[in-house]
Amino acid sequence: MQNYYILKKTKNIRNKWMSEYTVKMNNYLYLRTTMEHQRVNIDSSLTSNINYIGMVNVIRYFLAKSDSKCTFILFSSTTAYYPLCGYDSYTPPKSALNSLFYILDQEYHSNDKIHFKLFNSGNMKSKSYEQENLTKPVFTKNVECISSCSTPEHSAKYLLKHINDRKVISYDWFSYFLAIKNECELLIDYVLFPLAILVVFCVKLRTKRLMKFIK
């Protein structure tokens, strides 16, 4: 998986398909958790710094230094709406990032200087993803298959294609249903809201059934 910090820009663009946006990527750290809650010797504060504190600092600096209009995109994850075992160091800061987005969206809704957007992505096909699957609990893998898996490049293109459609952009249907279950933004969200409740309910039932086989 990747985190993307995308800042709107009007010059010095190398990739034509990215238009007026430039992308900076960094791998996130996956912290293994066994079913007995035994952890590898990695400071979990590192993932919080990468996935939340780092973003807060970037936003704070950007608001203080930027004078031009811009669109700031926060990159979240499906697990921020649907926590799973195996992501105990990754999901909490992502959930906090979601809360931060909704707060900033309210605080700056009438501000013409900056607009905030949230991108919810599923699993990303990357070396980090392949590595984490070596130690990830089978239960987590079985639940994760509900959400689509994509490459970072395809997800970035999808985001840029739909960036003007809405504030909260979800890569796959399950992430979308989780998002509108939390807050509806467009008329279509209200129309599909009952379906979102049903889908999430069915997934939760499946998750609970799978949990019975955890040893």
TrEMBL record:
Tell me the Gene3D superfamilies matching this sequence.
Answer: NAD(P)-binding Rossmann-like Domain
Which of UniProt's keywords are assigned here? Membrane, Transmembrane, Transmembrane helix
Recorded GO cellular component terms are: endoplasmic reticulum membrane
Swiss-Prot/TrEMBL GO biological process terms: 3-keto-sphinganine metabolic process; sphingolipid biosynthetic process
Q: Does the keyword section mention ATP-binding?
A: no
Transmembrane region(s):
187-205
Q: Which InterPro entries does the record associate with it?
A: NAD(P)-bd_dom_sf
Q: Which GO terms describe its molecular function?
A: 3-dehydrosphinganine reductase activity
Query: Is the keyword Transmembrane helix assigned to this protein?
Result: yes
The protein, known as = TSC10
Write down the species: Hepatospora eriocheir
